[in-house]
Automatic annotation (TrEMBL):
InterPro entries for this protein: BG_Antigen-Binding_Lectin, FTP1, Galactose-bd-like_sf
Signal sequence coordinates: none
Protein name: Fucolectin tachylectin-4 pentraxin-1 domain-containing protein
Keyword Calcium found: yes
Record text on subunit structure and interactions: Homotrimer.
Top-rank taxon: Eukaryota
Function, in words: Acts as a defensive agent. Recognizes blood group fucosylated oligosaccharides including A, B, H and Lewis B-type antigens. Does not recognize Lewis A antigen and has low affinity for monovalent haptens.
GO molecular function: fucose binding; metal ion binding
Keywords in alphabetical order: Calcium, Disulfide bond, Lectin, Metal-binding
Domain Fucolectin tachylectin-4 pentraxin-1, chain residue ranges per copy: 86-221
Annotated family: Belongs to the fucolectin family.
GO terms (BP aspect): regulation of cellular defense response; regulation of complement activation, lectin pathway
Length: 222
């Protein structure tokens, strides 16, 4: 039976949705232990960033934790398998940028992670302008979505080009995740598949003298 519904478990404020498959268990796991309930098993998986799937047996109370986000499964009565669903982990996190256009509060870095598509971050025109978000802990990320500037002159949508998106566990260990040649257009919604483990920082930087000005950045992670 395929996933028909979701559960949401939380560890402190860390809400995490899982898909559930009934009478299935994962083929490989890294951890096996006995736990009181399927929710407790889910919370264990949330607390381990490498865990992406968990199988729980209602009879034996065995909880299996696995690292695969698209796990191979086999039929097994009384087991339920939970698989983490990616979610935006950039929302509300701490962000900085190379400069703030006219030093106005309406242009600051946090406006790109406020969940509001009517607000933007906006640097001055400068060489290699950048924006960086600190996800505050290590995640296994899946994709990055950028919502470009969505109002104004046509040319202001075309500022987004020659963009490097880099990711890493520290600001000194960044790797290229995607390069966007562009130019973009007003209202563009750009999606970059970017499978990387050990990511705490995500950086956008334009490789020329330009303005960096986008309304929102979402980082989907497990
Ligand atoms: Ca915004």
């Amino acid at each position: 039976m395929t996933a028909l519904f979701y559960i949401v478990a939380s560890l402190k404020s860390n809400q995490q949705a899982f898909s559930i498959e009934i009478n299935k268990t994962i083929l490989s796991h890294q951890t096996s232990l006995v736990d009181s309930s399927i929710i407790a098993c889910a919370v264990l998986c949330i607390s381990d960033y490498k865990c992406c799937s968990a199988s729980y047996n209602e009879d034996s109370k065995i909880c299996l934790l696995g690292n695969q986000c698209s796990p191979v499964m086999r039929d097994s009565a009384n087991f339920k398998t939970l698989t983490k669903q990616p979610r935006d982990v950039a929302y509300g996190k701490s962000a900085t940028q190379s400069s703030v256009f006219e030093n106005l509060p309406i242009n600051i870095a946090s406006r790109a992670v406020d969940g509001d598509l009517t607000t933007w971050m906006h640097t001055a025109k400068e060489y290699m302008p950048f924006w960086i978000v600190d996800l505050e802990k290590i995640y296994k990320i899946k994709r990055i979505e950028i919502f470009n500037r969505n109002k104004g002159y046509r040319i202001s949508g075309e500022r987004l080009h020659d963009l490097d998106i880099t990711v890493g566990p520290t600001e000194n260990e960044m790797q290229l995740c995607a390069h966007y040649v562009g130019p973009s257009k007003l209202k563009d919604h750009l999606v970059f598949e970017c499978l990387h483990e050990d990511v705490r920082f995500v950086k956008l930087m334009i490789n020329s003298t330009e303005v960096l000005n986008v309304v929102e950045v979402k980082v989907y992670a497990w």
